[in-house]
Amino acid sequence: MPYDNLNIDFLVNVGGTYKKYNFSTIAELVQMTDGTSVQAAIDSIMTDMDATQHVIFVADIDARDELTPKIGDLVYVIDASDDSTVTEGWAKYLWEGTEWLKTAEGESLDVSLNWADILGKPSSTVSQIDAAVANSHTHTNKTDLDKFSEADSVLQYDGVPVQLGPLVVVSADEPTDQPESGIWLRPIETIIED
């Protein structure tokens, strides 16, 4: 019995008479509606469960129904389409003692959501997000940027090798024909001579 190690007696007043009880006997004294004791029900459940839960894989619903399950057994049915609630694919069932309860199915993994139903979504609309993705790498100075290239591991601009040297800040005093891109390249000799 589960409470054998609790050897504690206590007194209960039953109709003016005190009776001595022990924790290990209580489950045996409590009667269920069918007349069996709680302890008998617990013992029966433990026997039915065989103290372990089994996981079984079967091909279809007919194979599942041929099993002699114990309470708590889980069965994965590879083709559960004979279950009226499963259109196609697998399903998982739990034996609860009198019937199989479906606990999951492959179809429930396919989720289809509407944007309006998503909680905590950005305030942007779907079309705004699509436009942001489409324009995620566009620039107003793309024509100028496309002039950058590489030849023999040397950076080039418009086909001319770019010599990297000291950082030069281009000021507002530069010629007015400066490109809109803000990229102003001058030969190093010009910078040194200035």
Strand and helix map with partners:
Blueprint: E1 9-14, E2 17-22, H1 23-29, H2 38-49, E3 55-60, H3 61-65, E4 74-79, E5 91-95, E6 100-105, H4 126-134, H5 142-145, E7 148-151, E8 154-157, E9 160-161, H6 188-193
Parallel strand pairs: 3-4
Antiparallel strand pairs: 1-2, 4-5, 5-6, 7-8, 8-9
Written account of the structure:
With 194 residues, the chain is α+β, with helices and mostly antiparallel strands. The chain has helices at 23-29, 38-49, 61-65, 126-134, 142-145, 188-193, and strands at residues 9-14, 17-22, 55-60, 74-79, 91-95, 100-105, 148-151, 154-157, 160-161. It has three domains: 9-49, no CATH class; 55-109, no CATH class; 142-193, no CATH class. It has a four-stranded mixed β-sheet. Strands 7-8-9 form a three-stranded antiparallel β-sheet, with no helix packed on it. β3 (55-60), α3 (61-65) and β4 form a beta-alpha-beta unit. The longest helix has 12 residues, at 38-49.
